[in-house]
Amino acid sequence: MTTLFGEVIATTDFLVVIGGNAPHGPVKLVFTENQPADIEGQRVSFRGEFADENFVVRKSATHERIAERAFTLSLASPFASAEENWLRAEDELLS
Question: Own/partner pairs for 7-10, CB < 8 Å, 24+ apart?
């Protein structure tokens, strides 16, 4: 599985992710389950895989949710770095 992140924008027909670690411009998102309603216009991390020029989304989490979880982790583990807490929170939410 691959983790993709960036800002989600809507076109007339579908959602795409731009910026972040998108390999070559906008990437069309294809959801295996119901598309989350709250992600348009937000920075989001996705777990899934590339299929042709699309990204098949298995799980998603907004960066707001990841930040909240990372903060909680930092309280429980004060010696971990902010980056370690972020990556752990992202992994937990996308697993």
Answer: 7/41, 7/42, 7/43, 7/44, 8/39, 8/40, 8/41, 8/42, 8/43, 8/44, 9/40, 9/41, 10/40
CA angle 54, 56, 60 (to 5 degrees): 125
CA distance 10 to 73: 32
**0.85 exceeded by the pTM?**
yes
Retrieve residue 40's tokens: 């348009």
pLDDT recorded at residue 31: 93
Average pLDDT, the chain: 92
AA letter at 81: S
User: Is the CB of residue 7 less than 8 Å from the CB of residue 18?
Assistant: yes
